[in-house]
Specification:
This protein is an alpha/beta fold. Helices cover 41% and strands 18% of the residues. It has a five-stranded parallel β-sheet, sandwiched between helices. The longest helix is centred in the first third of the chain and has 14 residues, at 11-24. The structure holds magnesium ion. Magnesium ion (MG) binds at residues 9-10, 52, 54-55.
Length: 135
């Protein structure tokens, strides 16, 4: 089973991603700040990290930079509330691999999962119905 870590402090987005991952059959762990994400990834291996940019205690940029500094190269997809290019550049500069603007459509989340997980042993099922997903 593919493992995903979601670092996100917004309960609505947590619930939404949780529902998507359950439907897709992924093993999801949720933490609500960047510090907890770093601590988790120092001990556990996951296939993909979904990282909110703005979180209390430690934001997604700093958390990702810390992961990279520690040699943890797990792909990180930023969840950003702003679609502006400056944010995308900031994401890449911090060591994030990709980004998904909130609110995102299910089709957009699926595309991200396919992009980063398609080569993994368990292929991603893409039959989940599409609709607007906000949060
Ligand atoms: Mg947030």
């Amino acid at each position: 089973m593919l493992r995903i870590l979601l670092a996100e402090d917004n309960p609505t987005t947590q619930s939404l991603v949780s529902a998507i991952m359950e439907q897709m059959g992924f093993d999801l762990t949720i933490v609500d700040n960047g510090q907890a994400a770093v601590e988790f990834l120092e001990k556990e291996v996951v296939d993909l990290v979904l990282m909110d940019c703005q979180m209390p205690q430690m934001d997604g940029f700093k958390a990702t930079a810390q992961l990279r500094a520690k040699g943890i190269e797990t792909p990180v997809v930023a969840l950003t509330a702003n679609a502006c290019e400056e944010d995308e550049e900031q994401c890449l500069a911090a060591g994030m691999n990709d980004f998904l603007s909130k609110p995102f459509r299910l089709s957009e989340m699926r595309a991200i999962l396919q992009k980063w997980l398609a080569g993994k042993p368990q292929s991603v099922p893409f039959h989940v119905g599409d609709s607007d997903a906000r949060g």
